[in-house]
Structure formats: structure tokens, C-alpha cells
Amino acid sequence: MLFGRGREPRMPTAEEAPPGRAALAYEVPETHAVLGTALLGPYPEGAEVASFAMGCFWGAERRFWQMPGGVRTTLVGFQGGYTPYPVDDEVRTGLTGHAETVRVVFDPAEVSYERLLRVFWEGHDPTQGFRQGNDVGTHVRSVVFTHSPEQHAAAERTRARYQAALSAAGYGAITTSIVPAGEHPFYPASALHQQYLHRDPAGYCGAGGTGVSLR
């Protein structure tokens, strides 16, 4: 893990990042192990995409596929870094700059983007910087990657609301970044990571919420 002078994790520079590769180094399953839908597409007509980084992506992904309706598929991967087509071992060094991210494909006629944002904000502690629970590193930082101006505005609006609720509960400042997804390519993770907690329901995941509701 890349640490700064104070022994806290720090974001790498582009010069420090591994060179990466020209294509994925592994295969990605075609079908979601729980929902039975396409992981990489094509997605249903009218579906929209949301992207959230909120710590360990195993537990984060499960939160979204367990929603009662509207979510068509979920897919974990790496986003927000420098290295093209990174592999897991590279990401965990902190040198690629990527965050563990969940792509959520949803039908906005059945579930709103703001409902997804509620799951995001309440599903982790967005005040921890480069940490979620026992997991430490830039790869477990909190990020909303937005796919439209409307998503960006909703993310900023709910961040302000959640900050007020967290402050009232004694928490510090939210460290979540809100950035356009189009500026940060998404690289799917390997089959090992897709729907991992479906295969191992008791598997480890360090992400957990604060218990504070988004008001």
C-alpha cells in the first residue's frame, strides 16, 4: 500500500502507476449469478447505469442486488485510477489509483437514482477517507461516479443532506468524491469477485454503515 510521510495512505501520481495492459487479463462471466442477467450487456432498453465505490465491493454489490425491485444487474470492478486494465493485486498496492466500484444497472421506472444513493450513503461510513472499517487504502475510498448531470446534482444534493444528518450524530466531514464516470474508465473485476458473497455468504467484508439515516 502506498503511504505518505505520516504513514497514512495517499493517492499515487500517474508516474507512479503501473503501465497496465491493452485488454483484460482474465475472463468475466456473462451472467449474474443471482439475477440471471447479463453482466456486461447488452442491457435492457431504458435501463440506466450508476456507479458507487464504498469500500469492499463484495458487500457493496450484495446490498444492491438484494434491493426489492428495479435493479437489473450488478457488476464489480475498478474505477478512478490511472492503470489501464489493472489486476486485483495491482489495485491493492494503491499504485493504480483505482477504487473498488460497483456498477448498478437499474430501471428508473421502478427504482429512482435517489433510492440507490440512499443505499450508498447508508451502506458505509463516508467520513473515513482511505478506510472502511478494518480495510485501509485508497482502493476502499468513497466515490460516486456519475453518468449524467442529473445524477451529479442528485449526488451532491444528498451528500449535503447526509452531512447534516451525520454532523447531528457527531460524525465528521464526508470525504466522498463525486466525479463524472466518463472521465474514469470502469474495468470489470475477475470472476472470483463477481457476486462473491453469493458463493460465500459468510465471507469477509469490512464495509458497514453508520446507523444514520439519510433524511
TrEMBL record:
Enzyme Commission identifier(s): 1.8.4.11
Domain annotation Peptide methionine sulphoxide reductase MsrA: ranges: 50-205
One Pfam assignment: PMSR
Active site: 56
Catalytic activity: [thioredoxin]-disulfide + L-methionine + H2O = L-methionine (S)-S-oxide + [thioredoxin]-dithiol; L-methionyl-[protein] + [thioredoxin]-disulfide + H2O = L-methionyl-(S)-S-oxide-[protein] + [thioredoxin]-dithiol
Taxonomic superkingdom: Bacteria
One GO molecular-function entry: peptide-methionine (S)-S-oxide reductase activity
Enzyme's top EC category: oxidoreductase
Keywords for the protein's UniProt record, in alphabetical order: Oxidoreductase
Function comment: Has an important function as a repair enzyme for proteins that have been inactivated by oxidation. Catalyzes the reversible oxidation-reduction of methionine sulfoxide in proteins to methionine.
Family affiliation: Belongs to the MsrA Met sulfoxide reductase family.
Designated name of the protein: Peptide methionine sulfoxide reductase MsrA
Gene this protein is translated from: msrA
